[in-house]
Structure formats: C-alpha cells, structure tokens
Amino acid sequence: MKISLNRINDDFLFECTNSQGNSILLDNTSQPGAKGVSPMESVLMAVAGCSGIDVVSILKKQRQEITDFKAEVEGERIAVNDAKPFKSILVKFFLEGTVDPAKALKASELSFEKYCSVSKTLEPNVEIRYEVYVNGEKV
C-alpha cells in the first residue's frame, strides 16, 4: 500500500492520492478558507469508513436490508507535549431498513474487535467505543 502527497498551493493544501488515482484534500483547518480536511479529521473518517465497510458487508451477508447507513465519529484529544493525539473515539452507527438490531450490534462488535484495521491500529493508545441505532432506536 502506498500513497503520494503533493502540495497544491502556497500554504498547507495537499492532495493525497492512492495507487488507483483516487484522492482526498488535506489542509490546515485552523486557517481561514481551508479547502480540505485536517489530518486528524481524516483519521476519524478512516475509522468510520473502515468499520462502516465491515458492518455493511457483514449485514449484507446475513441478508439484512439496509436502506440507509450513516456514521458519526467524535474524537477526544489530549495534549502530549506539543502534539494532541486522540485519547478516545466514539463511533455512532445509524441504520435504517429491515435490520435485526441484534445482528447490527454483533456486526459492529465484530468490526471493532476483529476486522477494522484502522481501529486496530489506533487501539493500543486510543479507547474506541461505539453505539448502534436501528430505525431511530438505540440498540
């Protein structure tokens, strides 16, 4: 796995591109007019995407009919010298459709405990919690 990073303006806007040519923009979001996400926001996005792929994949294999899937991710940061790494991350999944709540909860558990490489990478230093909502009800 390899990405490339290219500076695309005179400040802090970078384009990160993977080997298939897909890209995202990273920027210093503390500056006015930022045109990309911050690197730390991209970490939260990676957790959401990785675990979201797992949950949807598991539920599709179980023939659950998902009509809508969303996630919200919140990260709490702490100061460690001059850096501010994540201390904890909370992931909330919102599923709509003909979905068994117990299966949605189990799929989420499997993602975070077994499959999600992003959360497993962060896990030694970051507490990762999750909540699951099916058709508006917390499971």
Please summarize what this structure is:
Pfam families: OsmC. The protein contains 3 helices and 7 strands, in the order βββαββααββ.
Give a description of the structure.
- The longest helix is centred in the middle third of the chain and has 23 residues, at 39-61.
- A hairpin with a 2-residue loop joins strand 6 and strand 7 (137-138).
- This protein has a 4-stranded mixed sheet with strand order 4-5-6-7, covered by helices on one side.
- It contains 3 helices and 7 strands; from the N terminus they run E-E-E-H-E-E-H-H-E-E.
- It has helices at residues 39-61, 101-115, 117-122; strands at 3-7, 14-18, 23-26, 65-77, 86-98, 127-134, 137-138.
- It is globular, with a radius of gyration of 17 Å.
- It has 139 residues and is α+β, with helices and mostly antiparallel strands.
- The N and C termini lie far apart (36 Å).
- 32% of the residues lie in helices and 36% in strands.
- The protein has 2 domains: 1-28, no CATH class; 39-138, GMP Synthetase, Chain A, domain 3 (2-Layer Sandwich), CATH 3.30.300.
CATH class of the largest domain: Alpha Beta
Structural shape: globular
Amino- and carboxy-terminal Cα gap: 36 Å
| Sheet/helix structural class | alpha+beta
Order of helices and strands: EEEHEEHHEE
CATH topology of the largest domain: GMP Synthetase, Chain A, domain 3
Task: Describe the strand arrangement of the main beta sheet, using strand numbers.
Answer: 4-5-6-7
CATH architecture of the largest domain: 2-Layer Sandwich
Total count of strands: 7
Helix count, per DSSP?
A: 3
Low-confidence stretches: none
Q: Domains counted in the coordinates: how many?
A: 2
Mean pLDDT: 97
Q: CATH H-level name of the largest domain... which superfamily?
A: K homology (KH) domain
Gyration radius, rounded: 17 Å
Protein name: Disulfide bond formation regulator
Pfam families: OsmC
InterPro entries: KH_dom-like_a/b (IPR015946), OsmC/Ohr_fam (IPR003718), OsmC/Ohrsf (IPR036102)
Organism: Chryseobacterium aquaeductus
